[in-house]
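Task: sequence design from structure.
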């Protein structure tokens, strides 16, 4: 339950922006490993796919992706190979190692599967239903 306090939209948006910025930065690692667990890829393609798969909620520039890929290679969770391209310089394709696959699997077990618990789904859907009702009232 929440106390009946007037809603400060500016404060709410500032808090939400800060929270989302931190949340999305952390999600970049997840998205990269998830994409590479299916197919090898190169940075530009990953940036496009992350935007697409996250329905536009996560976008990362190639520099951020390259920094993450370099870090992941040092940790041994990714490897890479160069391949010539018909339309430019050779591309560096990245793929997960066994350690990377295990890391992704364990991360999902610890942090994603919790959202499938019935009590968690009920809480989330209650909030979604409440938001839909409020939106409906605002459009009337």
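Answer:
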């Amino acid at each position: 339950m929440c106390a009946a306090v007037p809603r400060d939209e500016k404060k709410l948006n500032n808090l939400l922006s800060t929270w989302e910025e931190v949340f999305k930065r952390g999600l970049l690692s997840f998205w990269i490993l998830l994409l590479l667990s299916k197919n090898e890829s190169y940075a530009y393609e990953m940036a496009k796919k992350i935007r697409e798969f996250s329905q536009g909620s996560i976008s990362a520039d190639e520099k951020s992706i390259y920094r993450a890929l370099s870090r992941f290679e040092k940790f041994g969770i990714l490897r890479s190979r160069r391949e010539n391209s018909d339309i430019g310089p050779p591309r560096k394709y990245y793929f997960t190692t066994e350690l990377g696959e295990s890391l992704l699997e364990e991360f999902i077990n610890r942090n994603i599967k919790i959202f499938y618990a019935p009590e968690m789904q009920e809480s989330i859907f209650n909030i979604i239903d409440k938001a839909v009702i409020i939106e409906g009232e605002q459009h009337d």
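The CA atoms of residues 45 and 62 lie 9 Å apart.
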